[in-house]
Amino acid sequence: MSLAVDARERDLRSVSVELKEKVARGPTAIQEAAHVHGLAAGFTSGEVTIEGDSGDYLGALNDGATIRVKRNAARYLADNMTRGTVVVEGDAGYGAGAYCYGGTVVVRGNAGDFAAVMNKGATIIIGGNAGDDVATYMLAGDLVIVGNAGKNLGNYLIRGNIYVGGKWESLGHNTLLEEMTPADLTKLHGYFSEYSIDADPTTFKKIVRLSQKPFYK
Amino acid sequence: MPPVNGTFCVTVMKDRCINARMPGKCATCVEVCPYDVYAIDTDGNVHIQNYNACVGCRICSEFCPEDAIRINPAESEFLVRSPWTFPQVEEIHQKAQTGQYMLRGFGTMGYTPNFDNITIVPSQIASAAPRDKYREECNLEVVIGEDRCENPIHLKYPFIFPAMSFGALSREARMALCIGAAQTGISNNTGEGGLLKDETWLIKGYENERRTLKRWEPGGYLVVQWSTGRWGASADYVRAGDAVEVKIGQGAKPGMGGHLLGAKVTEEVAAVRGIPIGSDALSPCRHYDVQDLEDMKRMVAFLRDVTDYKVPILFKLGPSRPYEDIKACVEAGADAISIDGLVGGTGASPAVVTQGVGIPTVALIPPSVQALKDLGVHRKVKLFVLGGMRNGLDAYKAMAMGADGVGFGAAAEIAMGCRACMACHTGRCPYGITSQDPELRARLIPEEAGNRLANFIKATAEEVKILTMLSGHDDIKDLCEEDLRAMEPNIAAITGLKLIGYERRLPFWENGPGNERKAECGLPALDKQERVKCLR
Questions:
Q1: Are residues B57 and B144 part of one domain?
Q2: With an 8 Å Cβ cutoff, is B155 touching chain A?
């Protein structure tokens, strides 16, 4: 029997206590959680499904759990995640995948501004379009945008790869277009296959850093 | 006719000077000096013929092949050449040459309003009798988070080691701070450089990971910093601390994030921070995942959730608008707040920011305390003052003005051996404190430096004890503004303390800023009759 938590009119602490206890026993679904911010923070294992929309900071500091959102995620999805997987069937708001060190974030719809900011090693896949200032000061990892991106894409990119299937409004400082390699194509095939994303890796463009020290010489 | 300034002393080191050993072989100083400070006689001997003519251009020392000449100001250059002092001139030269602004370590140099113009009022016959420092007890403990947290922090002394990151500091310096904190029962802060594993057991007084032997009693507390760069941040990192500190700003570079230049990003630093070796680690100026106070409250909420509601959440502020900033931190859920003044130090910062941005530490305290009082949380939400704190005098004065404790950052580095040369950003610290060079780091022995830190803290605590007891108290919580006097009108105007001789606060403090602020916050201001009463 699947486990469930009803978060209606409850605060973070009371929901979290129940959620932690149930997740330890098995996959758990949460209903009516759009108003709860900071849910499933710091989990090291287990499976959580948000039935509907999620609040801000869902999966912050995630360190190994699998978290799914059936509709839209609010802001700061998977903030500072280090391991685990977060999948959103709809859109994600501002700052999706900010400060992540590892793990995988998949947003099947669109992602807002500042997605993947200061990404330090996670794989972040956006199935739709992304907003402005995406991947600002990214330091490692992969960002895949199947659709279009906004302004200042990859601003002050230091390390890591940005793959874009559509167009962008403008590239940020310290970025460079590079030819896709066979390894890049294989990697994207793998991502798309694993997460059932309908996209052709051969149409993607790759953006990398220009200089490792763009600030002070 | 050469200009006669008389403002510089010219020294030639004879043991280095070629001409002193072999007359006639070198007379570079004579040739390059445009003011005939030097002369050469018929035997080829060079001598200083008119030091009064020296204008301090230093061209002689620059061209001397043996670096044998020293030009030092006879009077302070600040007095006779300001604003075109030698450092200012050199700075312009450097910008002209490189197109880059200057970076440096440490904090603001030069005069700013400070605690030195405040004196302590001893107890005598008209007040509670002084206490006997040698034979009576004095409570110096400060507790953080006692109202809200399962594991509050009980500081044995009202002191903390504030945030100084691994990267800015060497591994050995970080270890020494933990050992020093363990010996004195105070807290050490990771800063934004992530956590070294050793710190988790050293801070508790254990000398190894297995915790088989407790070397240092009583053990201290580790504060992990949640900074704008999130270097090394993870759930494990957050849970490793006895408290979590949300960094909003710092005194040395308010409005900017942390700076760690590539020269100091070694393999180990890079691994802890998760960045490429040799790349600059420049933290953002703000938390990218916070856009307003509501977001900050939510962030605090999930930090509490991740730590199972057990540990205090602290905030660290730079010197901006202290009244409003403190209010915001309290509203966000802080259990304690550190506020870091203009004079606060750093490992690296643009010089213009370190030198010219922010509010002096002494001026931060009155509005910060007022904010806590207006919210009814003074002495509940603890206030720590940082930024140029040097000794027990500074600590006492800050606490009498309403702080619950102080932090020693630069002073702690100096206790470890620092000489305040302000070159921390180069990574060439000759004492191994702010260097990542293995040869330089080898000069700092963690246990020895930790003992020095503990000595400094204990001696400073004794100073605070002396001052607390001679002013009639046996508990630092009883210190108050009445125990202080401003020694000149400027500091009386800044702090609201009573002025010596006048024995009252300046008139606008009697009925001024507090009321205006209350009106802004929606609290009732004094009406006219009450204002008149205050003035009498």
A1: no
A2: no
Same domain, B57 and B155: no
Rounded CA gap, B34 and A21, in Å?
Answer: 84
Q: Cβ contact (<8 Å) for B233 and A80?
A: yes
Classify residue B496: in a domain, yes or no. Answer: no
* Of B285, B366, B283, nearest in space to B326 by CA: B366
- Judge: A38–B299 Cβ closer than 8 Å, yes or no: yes
DSSP secondary structure string for all residues of B9-78: EEEE-TTT-HHHHSTTS--HHHHH-TT--EEE-TTS-EEES-GGG--S--HHHHH-TT--EEEEESS-HH
> B437-467: b or e for each residue (b if 16 or more CB lie within 10 Å)?
beebbebbebbebbbbbbebbeebbebbbbb
Between chains, do B278 and A213 touch, taking CB under 8 Å as contact?
yes
For chain A, residues with pLDDT lower than 50 are none
The answer to whether B281 touches A213, Cβ cutoff 8 Å, is no
How large is the angle between the packed helices B361-374 and B392-400, nearest 10 degrees? Answer: 30
Residue B359 lies in a domain: yes
Alpha helices (H) along B484-527: 489-495, 507-511, 513-520
Question: What's the predicted TM-score (pTM) here?
Answer: 0.89
DSSP A154-178: TTT--SSEEEESS-BS-B-TTEEEE
CATH annotation of A36-209: 2.160.20.60
Tally the domains of chain B.
Answer: 2
- pLDDT less than 50: residues of chain B: 1-3, 515, 517-536
CATH number at residue B60: 3.30.70.20
Same-domain check for residues B73 and B173? no
Residue of chain A with shortest Cα separation from B260 = A216
Is residue B53 within 8 Å of residue B39, measured between CB atoms? no
State the Cα–Cα distance between residues B506 and A107, nearest whole angstrom: 61
User: Is residue B523 one of the residues assigned to a domain?
Assistant: no
Q: For chain B, positions 285-304, list CB contacts with chain A under 8 A.
A: 288-289, 291, 295, 298-299, 301-302, 304
Question: By residue range, what is the domain housing residue B354?
Answer: 136-481
Q: Provide CB contacts within 8 A for B398, sequence distance 6+.
A: B115, B361, B365, B385, B389, B406
pLDDT tens-digit map of B482-501: 999 999 999 999 999 999 99
Q: Determine how β-strand B221-226 pairs with β-strand B187-189.
A: parallel
Q: Are residues B53 and B191 in the same domain?
A: no
Q: Secondary structure of B165-216 in the HEC alphabet?
A: CECCECHHHHHHHHHHHHHHCCEEECHHHCCCHHHHHHCCCECCCCCCCECC
pLDDT of res. B532: 37
Return the CATH number at B464: 3.20.20.70
Residues B320 and B245 in one domain: yes
What is the predicted ipTM? 0.97
